C-alpha cells in the first residue's frame, strides 16, 4: 500500500488535499477507474470526478470523509485477504460420494431427494 495512503489512514487528518492524493494513489495502485472509485466510496461520479480534479465547489470535507472511509475499508480488506488461511481442499469421502450421486439424480431427473445421515458425516 502506498506511502500517502498509509500516512492519511494512520493520522486523524481531515485535510482534503492529503486525502485526495491518497485516493489518486489508490486508484493508480489498483488500476481502477474513477467511476469505480466513486461507486466504491458511495459518491456520484460527477461529484467524485470534480473532487479528484480539485474543482468541486461543494462540501469538500464530506467527499474527503467518504473517500477516507473507502480507503480504510480497502486497507482492512487487504489485511483480511493476506491473513486468511488457505481454503481447505474438498475431500471425497464415502458419504460425500453417496450424497453427490443423489444430488446428481435430482438434478437430471424430475425427482426430489432427501439426504439423511447420522451427525458428523458431512451433510453440509
Account of the protein in words:
- The protein is mostly helical.
- It has helices spanning 3-9, 16-30, 34-40, 45-53, 60-83, 94-108.
- Helices cover 62% and strands 0% of the residues.
- Helix 1 (3-9) packs across helix 2 and helix 2 packs across helix 5.
- It is elongated, with a radius of gyration of 24 Å.
- The model has no long low-confidence stretch (mean pLDDT 88).
List the helices and strands and how they pair.
Layout: H1 3-9, H2 16-30, H3 34-40, H4 45-53, H5 60-83, H6 94-108
Helix pairs in contact: 1-2, 2-5, 3-4
Quick structural gist:
With 124 residues, this protein is mainly alpha-helical.
Percent strand: under 5%
Order of helices and strands: HHHHHH
Total of helices? 6
Q: Distance N terminus to C terminus?
A: 38 Å
Largest β-sheet summary: none
Essential attributes:
124 residues; mainly alpha; 6 helices; 62% helix
